[in-house]
Amino acid sequence: IGNSILIYGRKNTSFPYQAFVGPDWPCMCVTYALLIAPTGLFINNIALSWGPGVVFGAAFLLLTTLVFYTLTACSDPGMVLEDEELKLSETESNSKFECGLCNILRPKRASHCFEC
User: What share of the chain is helix, strand, coil (3-state, %, to 5)?
Assistant: First the structure.
């Protein structure tokens, strides 16, 4: 689907039943490593001497961070569709630009793709 890779599920379903990763999936792996490694070092070197409550708290925060990061990173980002009913008047179109890649009118300070 575009530059995205469907990990599991079908194209026409929502996140719990499908998961996508984009073309920058190696950055996602680096982010996982940057979350897990420092937390593991903290738990191993510091939290164990402070008690089980700190270990549990750090592990819980790491787990929730990883779950919500995965939910966000693997969800379908969607796409901008042109709506035929919402044609712009002359005054509104003067403050908008047309994206050369997507052929969609956008406000001056907005961007939705690398072309913009």
Answer: 50, 10, 40
